[in-house]
Amino acid sequence: MKKFEEKTYHTETIYTGKIVQLNIDSVTLPDGNTSKRELIKHPGAVAVIALNDEGKLICVEQYRKPMEKSLVEIPAGKLEPGEEASTCALRELEEETGYTTDSLEWVTSFYTSPGFADEIVHIYFTDQIKVLDQRPDGDEDEFVELMELTLEEAEELERNQRIQDAKTAYALLYWKLRISE
Amino acid sequence: MKKFEEKTYHTETIYTGKIVQLNIDSVTLPDGNTSKRELIKHPGAVAVIALNDEGKLICVEQYRKPMEKSLVEIPAGKLEPGEEASTCALRELEEETGYTTDSLEWVTSFYTSPGFADEIVHIYFTDQIKVLDQRPDGDEDEFVELMELTLEEAEELERNQRIQDAKTAYALLYWKLRISE
């Protein structure tokens, strides 16, 4: 669907980094006027809603520089170039939590900030995980701590703003709905 | 919580635009090594889960440049400097849909992309809306079309990837849970 399409007549790349690229697109609007759009290009990401044998949610706590605080989130990570989303989901689950699974069910994929970024997050579910004999190395500049939470504990962390990101907020509702059905 | 804090020893501002600012922070990691973080500063946003008298969800379709396609989303918009989130939510509801309300209930606030951006979205709910006599002007470079959807219609749009953003995906689960309770 291209309703209200904005046609690009010029793209200026401001910055190309390890994770994001910033472009400024000059566009023609549906009414013929022109405007500029600030656009972040991102490789995309995955996240895993993983429940253990006790029905607890696997989460990781990590420092999030943009907010200057640590957040408790479901395991997640960026896609490597050419990597399949499900491969990435399994890799991130293993690296961040030391668990693995042979049952990953795709739940949904959504754009996180459609106004200015093309980042998409692919969300998977599993309730069949087992501990790896040896946990693989993750990114060398990533420090995470494993947590396993009941729904009540997770909702308490959400009230306390320690769970406070879109994919984990989505995961808690998904989990609640799954329990209620 | 500052667990695994990354201390900034240098910030370079690459770009300051109308919507985003891009900074590169040089940081010291918990293990004493250093790294760089690409950080998008964003003013924050609001979104409204609004149900009409028939229990249909108010949505707007608009072109989203980062994805080069139009998406169907719940009404939303950026915070103006100094603007209260609830004031912004009412303003965006009125501008984008022509509806107003005197009952806005805060639902949650979440960071959309905590790995690289500080954008927070404050989500509100209302099931008490009425049509404005006159719809206020919105942003002059914004073109949106109103839609009012049953849950079944919304879920069909989600399957067809016309609803495909984090806040609207969250809204559909929130709505389903509310109906089921």
Automatic annotation (TrEMBL), chains A, B:
Pfam families in the record = NUDIX
Entry's CDD domains? NUDIX_ADPRase_Nudt5_UGPPase_Nudt14
**Which keywords describe this protein according to UniProt?**
Hydrolase
For this protein, the record's InterPro entries field holds: NUDIX_hydrolase-like_dom_sf, NUDIX_hydrolase_CS, NUDIX_hydrolase_dom
The Gene Ontology biological process annotation of the record reads: nucleoside phosphate metabolic process; ribose phosphate metabolic process
- Provide the Gene Ontology terms for cellular component: cytosol
List the cofactors.
Mg(2+)
Start and end residues of each Nudix hydrolase domain:
40-171
Sample GO molecular function, one term: hydrolase activity
Which PANTHER family does this chain map to? NUDIX HYDROLASE DOMAIN-CONTAINING PROTEIN, UDP/ADP-SUGAR PYROPHOSPHATASE
Name under which the protein is recorded? ADP-ribose pyrophosphatase
